[in-house]
Amino acid sequence: MGSKIGFIVNPIAGMGGRVGLKGTDGVVERAIKLGAKPVAPRKAEEMLREFISHYGGGDKIDWYTCKGKMGEDELKKIGVKEIEIVYQPSTENTTSDDTKKACKRFLKRDVDLILFCGGDGTARDIFSIVGKRIPILGIPSGVKMHSGVFGINVRATAKILHDFINQGLTIGDVEIMDLDEKLYRQGKWRIKLFGVAKGIIEPTYVQVGKTSFESVSEDEIREELSEHILDEMEQNKDCLFLMGSGGTIDYIAKKIGLENTLLGIDAVYNKKTIGKDLNEEKILQLLDKYKKTKIVLSPIGAQGFILGRGNLQLSAKVIRKIGIDNIIVVATPSKLAATPFIRVDTGDPDLDRIFAEKEFIMVVIGYRLRRIVRTQTNKF
Amino acid sequence: MKRDPTGFLKKEYKELVEKDLDWKLRVLETGSTPHAVVDGKEVIMLCSNNYLNLSNHPKLIQGAIEATKKYGAGSGSVRAIAGTMKLHVEVEKRLAKFKRREAALVYQTGFAANAGIIPQLAGKGDIIISDELNHGSIIDGVRLTKADRAIYKHRDMGELENILRDADKKYNRILIVTDGVFSMDGDIAPMDEIVKLAAEYGAMTYVDDAHGEGVIGEDGRGIGSHFGIEGKIDVEMGTFSKAYGVVGGLIAGSQDLINFAYNKSRTWLLSGSHPPAVAGAQLAAIEVLETEPQHVKKLWDNTKYFKKELESMGFDIGESETPITPVIVGESSKAKELSNRLFDEGVFALPIVYPMVARDKARIRTMMNAGLTREDLDFALEKFEKLGRQLNII
Ligand SMILES: Cc1ncc(COP(=O)(O)O)c(C=O)c1O
Predict the structure, then answer these.
(1) Using one digit for the tens of pLDDT, what is the confidence trace for A73-84?
(2) A207 contacts in chain B (CB < 8 Å)
(3) CATH number for the domain formed by residue range(s) A3-201
(4) Is-contact B186 B317, C-beta < 8 A?
(5) What's chain A's Rg over C-alpha atoms?
């Protein structure tokens, strides 16, 4: 039996970009009026072709997809014959609702992976239905790709799919991020962290002999990170700890026995949670009260941001007050493999520059184990 | 709960076999000779570490036999109690002289040296900085400490300096540890730069010269001599198990280092000392290196010829600067197939595949031997060329 892949294309993803709109959610008609052309179908086809031509691997896959433009067309174009259609959109102009309905069918069929072509909005729709039950892999095509589910490009995505099918890769946590579109159209750029999904990641190997390696699970490494942070807390008893958002920090906090907000910032003192899901104001109040503060952050999403994506409570004012030397960055090696830079976008150019001028940051990747990673501001 | 106390043994072994990650041991029916009989087949040996073919040198064999006749088969004790023979002390003196250092200390193996001394050099409040591709025995030594650890990208002196700059304010002792010659790619750590940086920040330097000793530097004196920085590396660690052709780990450096090391290394203190045969052969190996420069020269002549020919055939042989020559072929399956077919044709060289190297950089690793003749090399090269073409590598 082959791998069961649920394949879905959001035919209108990426259309806004051509006409200067970020994302297409709710602005499709405007985009089409402005002359937007579909991007996703082409990208999806390109990726499938790349996959078939490099790896030939059609026979190892049982394809499940949607009628017509939502996946069937692309698979047929590259010559896949056996396709099971699980969903048919009711109208010509598909909406996010169609994506969600298709995902419900994928859940029923127990697919091993959902391969989709779209942007952050599509990822969010899929995630809203499947949660952490099925891993998600995105073929990049949308305008917004802050989520950690996307391959870097079409080619890399084909390779990830191949390696996944051949058991070369493992499943790990990835963040689902998206622009807050309503605020955006009011002129405000806000990237929100919507949740933590399952994605495909590079396994981490540790050397066990000169020529033998053992792959260690993400959880084992996150356990080491937890131990590291616990040590920090025990050695800095008079220090307030702010715990950032995302799956890695959530794991660490829970392992230490703390309550934690997955998508928010919590405060810990003496190994006890003293504030949950804090906003900027509350954080500033705490900073007034406590002399010493350390903040534990992990890169969120695809581009390695530790600040400015999904944690706007940590404003420039907050960070200046804490001091950038009191930021502890943690990440599993798999995560770092996908985000070779640590980036910040604090909304304060001077602070961003201080980060950039640091050139590098020491990232905790295991118990008392650090790796040096280059820093970059949001100009990329 | 009723548990199966040993069930995991079979289960985990089976998992390894299923993933094709278990070791399939090849058995030598001859010595580790340039032409060896392996699993019943005569092959040209391109994967031993016996670079200078000293394991078969008459003087080493003689040294082992004579020491055994004189002092017996075993040493009777750990070094610290009653297992230090005059012969052991003599090896250390000769070794220090050869390495042009104040003093030297012999451990049971190179692994025991790394696992024994590294944890004593740094502890709580200190930091150990490692190259990301360091050998597993270094990694294990580092794991035994309470020191913080930081890793820099392979041979990246920019990263090393940045880590040093960061560590300077935060830690007491700083220890930089690196392989001298890296055994996967055959490239050499920029030890001259490391020593310079270390001096700037008051860091200690430690080099594992397992694949450099007997190979690089004047008459095979190792990496210190190779870079003209003799005496400047704080700890020169090495092994008698490779070019020296015997077995045993070693460190060389100041008398202070040696005094400290043998009083503190648990692997040294709590494990029996070498049998006289080993010490006798070690002594002979050092003497051969001092008096017969032709072996090192032959090793390099062979290496240069082999690399030049492989390259002219169109093989990608990486960036090696030493007798370790990788032949990079791409996908793991291809490397495995090439290795198997080479073996069938009488050439023994092992594949190195992911995750030891990047997924698309799987390779055959060859290690040159001074005992191979030009005809042997031509034979091996012909097979490489033939199979390389058949497998569309060249
Ligand atoms: C770089 C390196 N260090 C240390 C060792 C261990 O040396 P020994 O075989 O003496 O234990 C080896 C060899 O396996 C090695 O390649």
Answers:
(1) 999 999 888 899
(2) 136, 139
(3) 3.40.50.10330
(4) no
(5) 21
